[in-house]
C-alpha cells in the first residue's frame, strides 16, 4: 500500500514535467520566430506588398528631391549656358512629367521580376514534367 501513493506522485510529476516541456517548446518556437528578423521582414513584405512598394517609391522620390535641392548631386553642370536655346525648349517639369516618371519608376521592379521569372522558367528544367517518361519505371 505504501508504493501506490508514491507511484501516483511519480506519475503526477511525470505528467507535470511533460506539460512543462510542451509549454517550453511552444515558448521556444515563439522566441525563435521573434529572433528571426529576416524571416519576419520577408513575411511582412509578402503580406503588405503594396505598402512596402509605395513606401519605397516615396522614400526614393523624397531622397532624390532632397539631394537635388540641397547637395546638387543630380544637377547637370555646364560651364556656360547655351545661347541659342529658348525657355520653351527646356523640358517642362509639371504634373504630367512627374506622373510619367513615377509610373516608370514603379514599373521597373515589376518588369524586372517578370523577366527574372521568365528566364528561370526557360533555363531551369521543370522538377515534375507534365508527361510520363518512357525511360523510367
Task: Name some characteristics of this structure.
elongated; 137 residues; mainly alpha
Oligomer status: single chain
Main sheet attributes: strand count, strand direction, barrel closure: none
Beta-sheet strand percentage? under 5%
What is the strand tally?
Answer: 0
What does this structure look like?
The protein is mainly α. It has a domain at 94-125. Helices cover 70% and strands 0% of the residues. The protein contains four helices and no strands. It has helices at residues 3-35, 37-47, 49-71, 95-123. The mean pLDDT is 79.
Summarize the SSE layout with pairings.
Elements: H1 3-35, H2 37-47, H3 49-71, H4 95-123
Short description:
By secondary structure, the chain is mostly helical. It has helices at 3-35, 37-47, 49-71, 95-123. It is built from four helices and no strands.
